[in-house]
Amino acid sequence: MKTKILLLCLLGTIIQACNQSTVFIGHRGSLLGVENTAEAFVNGVTHFGYQGLECDVKVTVDSQLVCWHDDDLKRVGVDSTITIPTTTLQHLQTLTLQQTRKEITYTAHICTVEEYLAICQQYNVFPVAELKWGIGLNNNDMTLFPTLYALIEKYGLVEQTVILTSMKHSIEYIRTNYPQLTCQWLRHQVQEEDYAWCQQWDVTLSVAHTSVTEDVVLRSKQISKDVATWTVNRIEDYQRVKDLGCKYVTTDYLVINQ
Q1: Which of helix, strand or coil describes residue 170?
Q2: For residue 211, what is the DSSP state?
Q3: Rounded to 5 degrees, what are φ and ψ at 6?
């Protein structure tokens, strides 16, 4: 417990981000808790003060939407033979997830996308839902997206929600059929032709912080778009992307200086 309290103090006082014009988004919730679970999401708001919470969306074998990044759960102590695409939600919910982060070990259970959206609604933060490849949510098949949209609509978050993905055709489907949703295109590196596509489809670039340059920000502003960037955990990296003009910063533990 003393170790946990010390870590909280260090995170709250030493690692600070002080520009209030920056919009901070908690990466998979936050560092405090098993990633992509309710505890991490809640702590992203209550401890770190993030305005948005990012999650990864995966699909179970029974077409349920859960928050997780990988196909398997081996990083959180679950047998690698158990995968999300081949397991029911009911069975996944019986599993205990365990993850050690900054010398603190957390346990949790898998979080559904509906639970995540309920947290966003309760704490008045905007969701950033990253679509990972799954049956019914991929470049070739978006038949499950209406289910996700219905959940977003249920919690009154249509105007606030950002859909993030690297899947280009998925974005085109969303912009065509659900134009009221905001989309961000995840890019590790930006190509010249990307700007024209973003302008055509009214999409914001979300770029790895190591690939953000003055030109990326300038070209984005020329098509009336801000730049989002991830995953920024060092204060010097934050200062660089802030100075370049990035508006949206996804982080595990930078703290807003209130």
Answers
A1: helix
A2: G
A3: -60, -45
Give the model confidence (pLDDT) of 153-169 as tens digits: 999 999 999 999 999 99
Q: Quote the tokens at residue 39.
A: 């505890």
Do 60 and 89 form a contact (C-beta atoms < 8 A)? yes
Residue 157: helix, strand or coil by DSSP?
Answer: coil
Tell me the Cα Rg of the chain.
18
Contact between 51 and 258 (Cβ < 8 Å): no
78 token code pair: 């679950």
- Token pair of 44 as six digits: 């992203």
Q: Which pLDDT tens digit goes with each residue over 30-59?
A: 999 999 999 999 999 999 999 999 999 999
Reduced to 3 states (helix: H, G, I; strand: E, B; else coil), residue 99 is strand
Nearest to 85 by CA among 104, 107, 101, 62: 62
pLDDT at residue 255, as a whole number: 82
The tokens for 240 are 């660089």
Q: What is the pTM of this model?
A: 0.93
Place of tokens 């920024």: 232
Inter-helix orientation angle 192-201/168-177, to 10°: 20
* Full DSSP string of 102-138: TTEEEEE--EEHHHHHHHHHHHT-EEEEEEPSBTTBB
User: Which token pair is 206?
Assistant: 């979300």
In the numeric block, which tokens belong to residue 171? 């974005």
